[in-house]
Amino acid sequence: MTNRHDPMSGDNTVGRPALRPRPRPSGAWYLVAVAIAVLGLVGAWFLGERLPDPPAPVAEFGSGTSEIVRLEEEGLTILREYTVSGARCAVQDSAGQEVDLTLTGGGLEVTAGGTTWAAVYETSQPVPPGTYTVACESYGGTDRFAVAPYNQFQGSVDAFVYSTLGAAVAVSLVVTAVVFVRRRRSRRRMRIMSRGAP
Fold this sequence. Notes:
Elements: H1 28-50, E1 59-62, E2 65-71, E3 77-81, E4 87-93, E5 98-99, E6 101-103, E7 109-112, E8 115-123, E9 130-138, E10 144-148, H2 152-196
Antiparallel strand pairs: 1-10, 2-9, 3-8, 3-10, 4-5, 4-9, 6-8, 7-8
């Protein structure tokens, strides 16, 4: 005798397609990773727009020459026209004493008069306003240099902006990698289980 399914019996399993398993975790996590990167980019841009402009150069000079500069603000930064060549510089105060310099961590740029300057050296300790003699020489021999007061807070905030953006991108990449690996393992387990199913 042929068994017929009784729709009133409450057993609705007959004829219902089996739900296809999906790899875990959900692919929506990729969107989360993208959102983190976008938020980091927007946040860094917002902070950058809120920052005050770095101090403009007070003097410019060519490679292999020296310049006597008068600073009205504390701190001294040596800028170089944006190039890839290396350079060495020296600074003396009004008494002829050598002023210790340290390489900047990068990231601080100043655009003035259509020229983009990159900070290369700063004084190891904040120096008082006064007169200083600055000399620089680039390995290429053709670079131009400039001197500007340096705002320590400006440099710290610049570093924070770049760190925020870098952290957001790093977290986004980690999330993407973890989701990709776990989903690939999930698909592999699903294939094995489907082969062993009766």
